[in-house]
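Subgroup meeting minutes
Present: P.N., E.W., G.H.
Scribe: E.W.

1. P.N. recapped why we're keeping a running log of single-chain structure predictions: easier to compare across weeks, and new members can see raw inputs and outputs side by side.
2. G.H. added today's entry (230 aa).
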Amino acid sequence: MYQFGVSQEFPCSYLPEQQERLLIAVEPQLQTLDGYSWLMSQGFRRCGEQVYRPHCLHCHACQSVRVLVNDFSPSKSQKRLLKKNQRFTIKIKNEKKDYYYPLYEQYISEIHAGGAMFPPNQEQYQTFLTTELTKQYFIETWDQDKLISVAVTDILNNALSAVYTFYHPDYKKSALGLFSILTQIEISQQNQKQFLYLGYQIDACNKMNYKNRYFPYQILMQNEWNLALK
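Output recorded in log:
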C-alpha cells in the first residue's frame, strides 16, 4: 500500500467558485516508468516531476480521459480537419529543442495572457514540460520551414500521455490543439500503444471540455474506467 501527500486547499484554476486540493505521489517507488504508468492508470497526471490527482472535498468535476486508440474512428469534423491540415509536416523528436522556447513564449503571452502561466519564463518552461520519469516525444508541426506547434508527449508502458501542446497564435483557425491529439492517436497506433491519456475533462470549463470528442474513450469514475457513450 502506497502513501500519498495531500496539498492544502487553494483556488481552482478552472472553476473559480471552487477550491482545489491535490493527492500527490511522493514515494520513491513510484518515481519510475512502471510507477508513473500505474499512476496514470489511477487517474494521475504530472506537472514537471510532480505527479498528482485532484482530491477535492466538495467537487468531482475533473474526469480523467483516455482514448482507446486502436478502436478510434475520426468523426466527420475530425476528417475535415485532417484534410485541411494535410499540407503540414509532422516531425518527431526525442528531446526538447532550443528553438521551441520562442514559440512557447509567444503562445503563453498571446493565448494565455493573464493566466496562471503568464508571464512565461525559461525556468517555468524547463520544469513544466520535461521529466525524468520517462522518455518523451516532442511532436512538431511545420508549415514549410515554419514551426507552428509542439505537442509534448510522455511515453508510458502501454500508452502515450498528452502533456501539453503550444502553437503559433496566427494558426488558431487550424485548430492545432485538436489536430495534435489526432496526430498523437496515430503515433500511439504506430507504436502499438493501447491508450492515449488526455488529462482531465471538465464539462463546466470551456477551455477544458474538448477531450470528449475522440471516440471511443474511457472516463475514470469511482476508480473504474468506464466506456463513454456517444
